[in-house]
């Protein structure tokens, strides 16, 4: 008998697949190894069930997205949690995160916390202008949680963010059913003892799943993927309407004369901080070698 399902947990080579009628503990067929392909959490799969035998994953359906570490497939949203203070937001980090999400075909979502201590309005306006989904949340009162929760309904999302930004507190406000101390949320979602071996999706009561990115005390974009310099401009969505209109066809949008992207920055159409991040990322990307991908 064949069934379709979603891989919601992976630990020690055992895949937990949620089908319409039950959750099955499965193994993967050996030929996946020969194809240099492994099923991961978030994969939609087909399993073969035989009486008296461990169910086997026989097919992995085409993925719409995939991130390297932690290995997750078919993400709808990648949510970066930042605080407006203590620690201060790092705009370069935020812009790297957004670029990686764009590159991977995942919708980036930016959330600013600790708005009880400082306004997030200026920061939010930067990313509103870009067209990125951006929210603010007060973890002391729960303000902003309802809007974020509504966004996540029926979606597969991963949360990440540096230590101290209030990610665990935000998750608790979003999903009080966890009923855990802030330091324990990550254990529930797959961290702790099995950091490198266990990844788990947490099912939401209103539909959808979240995965707290396991094993990160800080967000390192290179763990998600590497963007080479020739592909970088396309990961800044606000550059789109200006690319191809520069004086020089091979314009890198750094400091070239007649660059329409730079003109847009000078005219306030593109945020200066966004272009500064692009330039820094471009300089880093220049040193990357193809074999590092």
Outline the structure in words.
The protein is of the alpha/beta class. The chain folds into three domains: 2-62, OB fold (Dihydrolipoamide Acetyltransferase, E2P), CATH 2.40.50.140; 67-221, Rossmann fold, CATH 3.40.50.300; 227-292, Ribonucleotide Reductase Protein R1, domain 1, CATH 1.10.40. The protein has helices spanning 31-34, 91-104, 121-130, 145-152, 167-174, 185-188, 229-232, 260-266, 272-286; strands at residues 2-11, 14-18, 23-28, 44-48, 56-60, 66-67, 72-73, 77-83, 107-113, 133-136, 156-160, 199-200, 202-203, 209-212. The strands form three sheets. A six-stranded mixed beta sheet has the order 10-9-8-11-14-13, with helices on both faces. A five-stranded mixed β-barrel has the order 1-2-3-5-4. A two-stranded antiparallel sheet has the order 6-7. β8 (77-83), α2 (91-104) and β9 form a beta-alpha-beta unit. The longest helix is centred in the C-terminal third of the chain and has 15 residues, at 272-286. It is globular, with a radius of gyration of 21 Å. The two termini are 40 Å apart. Mean pLDDT is 87; it is low at 190-197.
SS-based class: alpha/beta
Radius of gyration: 21 Å
Overall pLDDT score: 87
- How many strands? 14
Our estimate of the beta-strand percent is: 15-25%
The name of the CATH architecture of the largest domain is 3-Layer(aba) Sandwich
What spatial form do the alpha-carbon principal axes imply?
globular
Tell me the domain tally.
3
Distance between the termini: 40 Å
Low-pLDDT runs: 190-197
What is the CATH topology assignment of the largest domain?
Answer: Rossmann fold
State the helicity in percent bands: 25-40%
What is the CATH domain class of the largest domain?
Answer: Alpha Beta
**How many helix segments?**
9
Widest sheet, order of strands: 10-9-8-11-14-13
| Succession of helices and strands | EEEHEEEEEHEHEHEHHEEEHHH
Major sheet characteristics: 6 strands, mixed
CATH homology superfamily name of the largest domain: P-loop containing nucleotide triphosphate hydrolases
């Amino acid at each position: 008998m064949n069934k379709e399902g979603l891989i919601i947990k992976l630990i020690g080579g055992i895949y937990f697949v949620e089908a319409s009628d039950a959750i099955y503990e499965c193994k993967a067929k050996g030929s996946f190894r020969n194809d240099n392909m492994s099923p991961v959490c978030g994969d939609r799969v087909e399993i073969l069930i035989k009486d008296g035998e461990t169910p086997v994953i026989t097919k992995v359906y085409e993925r719409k997205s995939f991130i390297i570490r932690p290995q997750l497939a078919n993400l709808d949203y990648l949510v970066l949690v930042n605080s407006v203070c203590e620690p201060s937001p790092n705009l370069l980090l935020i812009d790297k995160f957004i670029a990686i999400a764009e590159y991977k075909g995942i919708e980036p979502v930016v959330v600013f916390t600790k708005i009880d201590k400082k306004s997030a309005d200026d920061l939010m306006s930067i990313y509103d202008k870009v067209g990125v989904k951006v929210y603010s949340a007060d973890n002391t009162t729960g303000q902003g949680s309802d809007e974020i929760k509504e966004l996540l309904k029926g979606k597969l999302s991963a949360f990440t963010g540096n230590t101290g930004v209030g990610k665990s507190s935000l998750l608790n406000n979003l999903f009080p059913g966890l009923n855990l101390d802030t330091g324990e949320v990550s254990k529930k979602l797959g961290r702790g003892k099995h950091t490198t071996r266990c990844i788990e999706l947490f099912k939401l009561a209103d539909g959808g799943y979240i995965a707290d990115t396991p094993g990160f005390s800080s967000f390192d974009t290179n763990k998600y993927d590497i963007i080479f310099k020739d592909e970088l401009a396309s990961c800044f969505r606000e550059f789109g309407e200006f690319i191809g209109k520069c004086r020089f066809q091979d314009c890198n949008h750094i400091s070239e004369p007649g660059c329409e992207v730079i003109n847009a920055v000078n005219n306030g159409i593109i945020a200066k901080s966004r272009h500064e991040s692009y330039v820094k990322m471009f300089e880093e990307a220049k040193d990357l070698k193809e074999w590092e991908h």
